[in-house]
Design brief:
Blueprint lengths: L4 E5 L5 H7 L4 E6 L3 H10 L7 E2 L7 H10 L2 E4 L23 H12 L3 E6 L2 H4 L4 H12 L2 E8 L12 E8 L18 H4 L21 H21 L1 H7 L4 E2 L34 E3 L2 E3 L13 H16 L1 H11 L10 E5 L11 E5 L2 E5 L17 E3 L9 E3 L2 H7 L17 H7 L3 H11 L1
Parallel strand pairs: 1-2, 1-4, 2-3, 4-5, 11-13
Antiparallel strand pairs: 5-7, 6-7, 8-11, 9-10, 12-13, 14-15
Helix pairs in contact: 1-14, 8-9, 8-11
Length: 451
């Protein structure tokens, strides 16, 4: 097999580096703007210090000449914030990271390596009605590359994480006669056949160190929804509730009947809502020019799309079906007075038992999300509040739930703990580093097909 010399741009923890090293390829240059991660990179990988640069925008020409002479491959997990659904989706207009692809493209254009290997969020493909990605792909094709792309996740290869990403591979037509022969690895997973509830256990520590427990206030919210599930299960049975539970559940639609069809009702005119009820059946009022008791997602001048109309109707029907049960529970916990993110609940473990301590839980702006314990949710790089949570086996509320640890997150991203020898002092930098990392497992499989 041909051994390549590669460049690792937006290097982060070095996921590309580790995956390519497993195939015997050598890194000759890296770039990472974060000082702490750059320092970690220098310690973990044998590379001349002058060839670990800080800012892609200021790489010296002498270094570019070095790359042009020696590099066979450029890999880059370039910033995703401009294209992510979780962000502003400003694309190339993003104030901080919007121009990063342009700098990356200028380096590729100057160096013209035989291969390029890029990674980003899936929404890059669809951003701005697919115009953004089409422009990127066209630019790369115009300088001589055959470009192929595919969305893949670790779960596709029997690895318990749902982190789907867009992978982009380019092969230089002049340097490789077989530039059109590359194929991405085939998905192997059959979720129902290949997984049982114990799979993720391989990646969790039996006696974890430096455990961070969920704050009591949030643990109380988990217990609040556990009580709801217990009440429903006791009355209607586990099978019915687990299989039929509405997800995502928008509790604001309890007893709500404000109009969701039509083109002229979605504005701040109170007249359009006279006689209608908003969140939790409360009367819609006007205060300081704002409509009160109308869900935030309903305060729009645009017509609701058909999917949202259907979704709200399904929520209303479900809440009406179990109205007495929900009414008592909402009253007991004063759910109607809570912040909106605690009024939404995603049950993604249909068919399983209703015990939340055996599930993976995460607090997100879109609500409290519960997933099966066989597959970890995508690791988020924004805040610690969105780190996956698991039961801790304690009867004390303060220690009943914990966040997954730094080491567990590394394993779920495909890293072996031995891959990063110097990492102890960087544990506090857990989410930006591990959440932003490429998945070593997936990158390694693609790299094997590339050469």
């Amino acid at each position: 097999m041909k051994k390549l010399k590669f460049i690792d741009l937006f290097a982060g923890l070095g996921g590309f580096h580790i995956a390519l090293r497993k195939e015997g390829h050598d890194c000759i240059y890296a770039c990472e703007i974060d000082e702490r991660l750059r320092d970690l990179y220098k310690k973990n990988f044998k590379l001349k210090k002058e060839y670990i640069w800080n800012d892609i925008r200021t790489i010296p020409k002498i270094h570019l000449d070095f790359m042009k002479k020696n590099a066979d491959l450029i890999c880059a997990g370039f910033p995703c914030q401009p294209f992510s659904k979780a962000g502003s989706q400003n694309g190339f207009d993003h104030k901080i990271a919007g121009d990063m692809f342009q700098y990356l493209f200028s380096i590729i254009k100057y160096v013209r390596p035989e291969y390029i290997f890029l990674e980003n969020v899936p929404n890059l493909f669809f951003h701005n009605s697919k115009k953004t990605y089409r422009k990127m792909k066209m630019n790369l094709e115009q300088i001589g590359y055959t470009i192929k792309e595919k969305q893949l996740a670790p779960i596709d290869f029997c690895y318990p994480q749902t982190r789907q990403r867009l992978y982009i591979v380019g092969i230089n037509k002049k340097k490789n006669k077989k530039h059109d022969s590359f194929e991405f690895p085939l998905r192997k997973i059959n979720l129902k056949k290949d997984y049982n509830h114990k799979n993720i256990g391989k990646f969790l520590s039996k006696n974890p160190k430096n455990v961070e427990y969920v704050f009591k206030a949030k643990a109380e919210k988990i217990e609040m929804f556990q009580d709801l599930l217990n009440r429903l299960e006791k009355k209607y049975g586990r099978k019915i509730i687990s299989n039929e539970f509405m997800s995502p559940l928008w509790l604001m639609e309890f007893d709500a009947n404000y109009p969701i069809n039509g083109t002229n009702t979605f504005n701040k005119n109170l007249k359009n809502f006279i006689g209608y009820k908003g969140s939790f059946g409360k009367r819609i009022k006007m205060k300081n020019g704002e409509l009160i008791n109308l869900p935030a997602y309903a305060k729009t001048k645009k017509k609701f799309p058909s999917w949202k109309i259907n979704f709200i109707n399904r929520n209303r029907e479900y809440l009406k079906k179990y109205r007495r049960d929900f009414k008592n529970w909402i009253k007991d916990y004063k759910v109607d007075a809570m912040m909106p993110s605690y009024q939404k609940f995603e049950w993604n473990a249909h068919g399983e038992n209703l015990n939340l301590k055996n599930k993976l839980i995460s607090f997100r702006p879109s609500g409290i999300r519960v997933k099966r314990s066989n597959v970890a949710p995508t690791l988020i790089s924004m805040t610690t509040t969105q780190t996956p949570i698991i039961g801790n086996g304690s009867s004390k509320l303060e220690k009943k739930y914990r966040f997954i640890t730094f080491e567990e997150a590394l394993r779920l991203q495909g890293f072996a703990l031995s891959d990063l020898r110097f990492k102890e002092k960087y544990k506090s930098y857990f989410l930006p580093a591990v959440g932003n990392a490429v998945n070593v497992k997936v990158v390694h499989l693609i790299a094997k097909n590339l050469i």
